[in-house]
Amino acid sequence: IVPGMKARGHGAILNVASTGGVSPRPNLSWYNASKGWMITATRAMAIELAPKGVRVNAINPVAGRTPLLASFMGGEETPEMQEKFLATIPIGRFSTPDDTGSAACFLCSDEASMITGVALNVDGGRCL
Predict the structure, then answer these.
(1) Percent of the chain beyond pLDDT 90?
(2) Distance (Å, whole) CA 70 – CA 120
(3) Global pTM value
(4) Which residues are catalytic?
(5) Which candidate, 67, 83, 65, 71, places its Cα nearest to that of 20?
(6) How far is C-alpha 8 from the geometric centre of its chain's CA atoms?
(7) Hey, is 119 helix, strand or coil?
């Protein structure tokens, strides 16, 4: 895809990282590290591809109701653990596919034509 974008002189690439790459969770070292790598790779690609008109950004969603949720909450998904985890998100709720999708659509749109190298936290304030 990248050679085609370079040839056309424009394009947008969106990587999916995680708040784990910005504010790591305990006992998820490899997950956190892989998401941190994705953020750094996004920035490196942005520098490399910007002169060719290709923008590269990432999104960092906070945890949503997925099979990984129990891992983010310390291994168990009890009401008490959910409450404790939600207390770390100032907006007070888990992310939804719409939250992530809306941010993704914006970063890939012409309205974001001057944005590159950004890892946007879609996190309800968790990483503040």
Answers:
(1) 78
(2) 24
(3) 0.90
(4) 31
(5) 71
(6) 27
(7) strand
